[in-house]
Amino acid sequence: KLESLKDIQEEIIACRKCPRLIKYINDVGKNPPKRFKNWTYWAKPVPSFGDENAEIAIVGLAPAANGGNRTGRVFTGDHSGDWLFKALYEVGLANKATSVNRDDGLRVTNVYITAVIHCAPPQNKPSRDEINNCLPYLIKELKLLKNLKVIIALGKIAFDTILNIYKVKYEFKHLAIYKLPDNKKLVASYHPSARNTNTGLMKWEEWVEVFKKAKEIIGE
Q1: 3 state SS of 134
Q2: What distance in Å separates the CA atoms of residue 36 and residue 67, rounded to the nearest whole number?
Q3: Where does residue 102 rank: exposed (0-12), middle (13-18), buried (19+ CB within 10 A)?
Q4: Strand ranges (DSSP E) for 106-201?
Q5: pLDDT tens per residue across span 71-125
Q6: Which parts of 17-123 are beta strand (E)?
Q7: All residues at 6 or more sequence positions from 159 whose CB lies less than 8 Å from its CB, including other chains
Q8: CA–CA dist 39, 34 (Å, integer)
Q9: Whole-angstrom Cα distance, residue 152 to residue 177?
Q10: Of 84, 15, 8, the residue nearest 48 (C-alpha)
Q11: Beta strand pairing status for 150-154 and 185-189?
Q12: Packing angle between helix 204-218 and helix 79-90, nearest 10 degrees?
């Protein structure tokens, strides 16, 4: 039986390949910051999220320790998620501009959101082995997204991971667009982390432009 995207998500949630990450996400869940002391943390690998018929895939780095690792949904409950879903809403790819928990009614259209790794890593720095352990999930997802035309890589690790999958070499530059061997387009973007957005490395208009470009490519 061929795997489905739902099968992959269940595999991700059940995955225990990286002992360092499993220990870390559990430790964070047991010792949350005061502002989240009343939360029961998800504290498992966080599955991907979105439209199985999507023409656009967004590839992030990893769930945030007190974001996706807390809420159980990627880019949900943290600064990066605030930027992502506000932008998707602004360009008509989401039904809401905010994302606070798994049951908040958020829906995305024509977008599938995944990550290089599905467990929050300490200091947001996964090891090479941890990236390689999670890589098969991303490869399978990209194959199963039958309508996929555009891959948006958020940050250099995500960008380099896509290059590795496709065995190509390109330069990482914000808003650069490259053609992949299977004719899909790769859009490079800075990650919407607080470090990039609060410092002005990436301005709001430059961020929204990423998704406008993706929509142009798919002909919307």
Answers
A1: helix
A2: 10
A3: middle
A4: 111-115, 150-154, 177-179, 185-189
A5: 999 999 999 999 999 999 999 999 999 999 999 999 999 999 999 999 999 999 9
A6: 49-50, 56-60, 111-115
A7: 153, 170, 172, 186, 188
A8: 10
A9: 9
A10: 8
A11: parallel
A12: 50
- What is the identity of the amino acid at 79? H
Query: What does residue 139 show for φ and ψ, rounded to 5 degrees?
Result: -60, -45
d(CA 150, CA 180): 10
pLDDT digits (tens, 9 = 90+) for 93-104: 999 999 999 999
For residue 138, CA distances in Å to 19, 46, 95, 132, 204 come to 20, 13, 25, 10, 28
- In this predicted model, what pLDDT tens digit does every residue of 154-209 receive, in sequence order? 999 999 999 999 999 999 999 999 999 999 999 999 999 988 998 888 999 999 99
d(CA 14, CA 185): 31
Give the position of tokens 């991700």.
12
Rg (CA), the chain: 16
DSSP state of 112: E
CA dihedral 157, 23, 9, 156 (to 10 degrees): -10
3-state secondary structure of 188: strand
Backbone angles phi, psi at 149, to 5 degrees: -125, -25
Q: Which two tokens stand for residue 38?
A: 């009343």
Question: From CA 198, how far away is CA 139, in angstroms rounded?
Answer: 32
Nearest-5° Cα angle at 19, 156 to 161 = 20
DSSP 179: E
Q: Which two tokens stand for residue 218?
A: 């798919």
Measured CA to CA, the distance from residue 62 to residue 125 in angstroms comes to 9
